[in-house]
Each structure stands twice: as structure tokens, then as C-alpha cells.
User: What shape does this take?
Amino acid sequence: MEGGEAKRSRDEAVRAWRELTGGPEVRDHARPTLVAISGGADSSALLISLASAEGAKIVAAYIGHGLRSADEDRADVEAVTSLCERLGVPMIERHIRVDRSENLESSAREERYRALEQIAVSQGCRYVATGHHSGDQLETMLMALTRGAGLAGLVGMVPSRDLGQGVRLIRPMLGLDRVACEQICNAYGYGPRHDPTNDDLSRRRAWLRAVVAPIIENTPGLGSRLSTTSRLLRDAQEVVAMRVEALVDRAEVSPGSVSIPVGLLEGETGLVVGGVLRRLACTISPEGSDQRGWKHLRPIIAAIQSGDGLERRFDLCGMSVHVVDKHIVIRRSPIAKEL
Assistant: This one.
């Protein structure tokens, strides 16, 4: 028998799913959704919840990354297959190759979302739903905080965003915590799979999850509080982005370089100036844009805001930034061209 707490959590997941897929005016059959499932408590709880929506078209997708042993992958697939059969939900299994020469977690995430987008299109699903919950949101925001991220990073995971080809990524579980996910699974009689990589405390996210997050997760209403903070940060980021775009529009672009008057930026906040520099650098080359952080931007921002009129040159991760004759000129550095 389903417990009261589990039913309330399941109903909350369904309510959030409906809100993210068009609101109450849309019938459930018109919200075709692909659920990304690993066999763990969060994604399994999401699938169990959405499968309870009568008439809804729900498809499950298991993405194998090949990062764990074949036995572990096989056990995950068997558990997911069994759960999908019980729920009467079709399941698609897909295995991807992850570039181990790059940032492993980032590369795996990108390939996973690419695969999910392709499966969603092939299955006629307009939405891809993931089981990220409030604990995952907390970890993401803490990760951003520990690496000194700006507003865009501190925002955390957004409830909904575009994946491409008319498919949207949604996260209906952000208002629920880890315990709620486990309760939903337990009430259904499903034993979630455990990912042993989460036990490796040498990984920063795993350490935050095991040591720091438990202290904060006991905060009453954490999910809604994080959602509020994330929404406020998104609003602040949007204000900054609008100002950045207005200034970028006044830049002069020529083959191989871009320039903007120093006077336009001298009175702006460091956040805006940094945003303008990153955007202008991307017009020359988007390569390395994720490496142009505040460590590299800070001395350039200080020179611009000083108003002393001195000529200066800086390297911005393969880009040359030249402050001269009351202009900021950005072009590829000679070294980057040779590479």
C-alpha cells in the first residue's frame, strides 16, 4: 500500500510535470515525455510518478556511458527493464562513447543529453524529463560557489530549457528531496540501484554530497527556498545579460578583430564589463569560452575601470586584449593562430 508521504510526493512530481509542459489547459496525452532513467532512486521515482498519470505518453530511456564495469551496467539495465515492464512503459536502451581526454563529467553529460534529444525526436516526445531533485540542486549551487562562479553558475539547474529540435529538458523533481524519491520507490516496492562512483570522496561533488549537503538538507522547505534563490539569480543574470547585449551591439566588428570604446565600459560594474569581454571574445572565436573566467578577466576589468588611459596588453585564453587609444581591441593572439 502506498504511504501518505509517498503519494503526496508522487502527486507533487506530477503537478510540477504538468506545470512545465503547458499547464492545466493541456491534456496529459498531449505531453509526450521521455524520462531519462538510470535505475537510481531519483529517476526511478520520477518514472513511477509520471506513469501514474492516466493517458500520458511516457517513454523511458537508459543511457549507458561505459564508465563502469560491464556487470554493473548490466545490473542497471535489468533493474530498469523490470521496472518499466511493471509500469507498462516502453524503454529505449542506448550506449554512448565518452571522450576521456576532456572533462569526463562534462563530456558524459553533453553526450547523454545529445542522445536523449535524438531518442525523444525518434519517439515523438516533446519533453525530456530528468530526476534532478533539491539535493542535486544544492550540490550544483555549492559546486559553483566553491569554484567562484558568477551569476550564471550560481543559478544552478533551471527547471526547463531548450535541448534542440523542438525538444525541451524539464526537471519536475526539483521541489522534492532525496528522501521523497526513496519513499516513492519504496512504496512501489522498487529497490533503487546504487552508483558506487558517488562513494568516491576524492570527487568534489561526491564529497559535498556526503559531508556538506546533509547538514543543509535538513533545512525545512529547502526545495522551495533553493527554487526561489535560483529564480532571483536568474532574474539578476537576465538584467546583466540585457546590459551586456546593449553594449556589445555598439562594438565594431572587423575581420579577425572587434573593438569597443573604453569610455562605454568605464562606469559599468565588473560583472557587466566581464560579460562584454567574454561576448566580444566569442565573436572572434567561441573556442575556450568556458576557460575565460574571472581569474583571467579581473586584471583587464581593473585596467578598464582605472580610467588612467595607459596602454596595456593582456592574454585572455588565446585571445589578445589590447587597451589603446581609448579603445579595447580583441583579436586572436599570435600563438593561438599558430596552433
Summary: The chain has a mean pLDDT of 90. The first strand starts at residue 33 and ends at 36. The domain at 4-221 is CATH 3.40.50.620 (Rossmann fold). The two ends are 64 Å apart (CA to CA).
